[in-house]
User: Fold these one by one.
Assistant:
Number 1:
Amino acid sequence: MPKSIHNCHAFRAMPYDRVVRTIAKDQREDVRFSADSVPTMQMATEEYLVSLFKAARLAASHAGRVTLHPEDIILVKRIRGGF
């Protein structure tokens, strides 16, 4: 039986969960999460980062480089209208 793509994460689940809960607790003391919310946030975070790095790799390639530089990521975020 083929392995589901949703079981292959870039980040381990427990450390990611701790980071999310720490950030949430810093914002508001009484934050609670449903069982599916943190894995859903992890999936969305990983999808965003993968697409960001793919686009940054294209920017680096266009500049004639193989190595990503911070300005590649900054350029992609500016083009996308991101923060």
Number 2:
Amino acid sequence: MPRCAGRRARPSPAADHALGGAVTAALCGSWDHEGPCHFPHHTSTRADGDELVVTIRFDAPDDEVDEVRRLIVGAVRTGTLVGSDGVTNRWHAVD
């Protein structure tokens, strides 16, 4: 059953893509992984003033939903991800 989690963040430039990478790394072990995601998901962002509204749609068995939500919150709260270009992207979790 599809689920949804939402967070807010204040990003540095281009951090919107890094937020999705951080969520993928948390749920799949790496943002650059082989094969399908362990927990199929999609991360989208939209601007709201100087903040991003981050929406993560995911699929997980009922008994793993709380763990997936914990991983998502942790990923957004980390506030940093080094991209494939070696650039460190930063953001600040708002909630």
Number 3:
Amino acid sequence: MVTIVCETIIHASREICFDLARDIDAHCVSTGKTQERAVAGRTSGLIEMSETVTFEAVHFGVRQRLTSRIVQFVKSLKDGRKSTGKTSKTRNASVSRKTTRTVLK
């Protein structure tokens, strides 16, 4: 099994990073080469808990559809607390880290 870890350092607040990560319009702009567009479910704006979005794009010459559902949603507040009411031990910083782990089997 191979694990790929990609860590990106972003010079922006956690709130901005969080909202951009769930912004459907920003995603469509960033994937212009594949002509990706939202075609079903939530098709614009900020996706919320339990919502779905279906994207359609052309990859390797093949038109494909991918549907995603938001099943976990925890937003940090400006003072470092989570929206669930639990206290966070990390403080809000001007630099955020985004770590993506992909496991290939």
Number 4:
Amino acid sequence: MVLYFAYSNYIFPVRFHENENEMEHYSNEDYAFFGVGPAIILVSLYFLVTELRQLFSSSDMSEYFSSIWNFFDIVPPIVIPLIVIQDFLRVKYDF
């Protein structure tokens, strides 16, 4: 949780708002990302595997998804690695 908090509040905003010419050189946030990003992905994959085991060990998938808490358990380990990967690829989007 602490790693993701540091990433989402300090590392990601700086990297996301960099100009194209600032991307040519690594900044402190880039070095922090290279350390924190893979750790976040590994932790997320651990929790995803745990939830998938729980999902497939239940007798029925509808039984697993009948609890709202299981949605809260399975969505973050899917979404968080996608955010980290798009940051690694420097994907920019405009709202």
